[in-house]
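To: structure subgroup
Subject: Chain for Friday's discussion

All,

I'm putting the inputs and outputs inline so they're searchable in the archive.
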Amino acid sequence: MNASLLSRGHLSSEAIDLLLLAALSPPEANEAKQHLDGCDECRGRWTELNADKQRFEQFVFARTLPKVEARVAESRAGFFERFKLRILIPVLSVAAAAGVVASMGPGTQTEDDVYVGIKGSADASLEVFAVRGAGGGVFPVTPGVTLQPKDRIGFMVNPAVAKYLMVASRDGAGVFSVYHPFGAQQSQPVAPAKVKVELPTKVELDATLGAERVVAVLSDEPVTAQQVEAALEADPANPKLPGVRFISTEFIKVAP
């Protein structure tokens, strides 16, 4: 392989950035792709960079550019073209994107301008989705949404910087269950992430009706199911444990 693409046996950051920009020569691009196929570490970095790019394009660029255009419409000729060139570079990290917007001056940046401020510190989140019937479509489960017995639910979680994760439930009868890892007695290690990931666990709901609360349990150390159950028993709407972050949502289960 071309030595200029490598750093200590792995693709250099510059090489991965240039590959994402399609700025490598065809032979270099082929060599880099072949290396990615056989190197888990570099493939992980490549996947992470692509996720950053997609997140930037979906949440930052789409929401920021129209406001930027309006703000600089009366600026001197040429300024916006230079600014747009910077914001369009796909390999900008989310932190760099936030910095570009902030560079317009104090007081100009609003919460809507930037979805995530600092790379790696995206706020943790939990989303629940459901499927009804054999050929049913997927729909989001938001507070107040009604589900039915035999609906299947899944989870999208952004663990942010947490090292351990559990998804648990307290149903309408007060019965506690661990949904992910299903039936586990404690939380499992999770790789810190900057984007939401779909958990492999899918759960078919039983016949218990009423309000069911689902919580993502995020922590730096393992947490037992017994601890989580006790916290939910003590305060279902606002469970607390030292060093643990709970993110919860609730849905209503009704008869078909």
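Points worth raising on Friday:
The longest strand covers residues 210-219.
The mean pLDDT is 75.

D.
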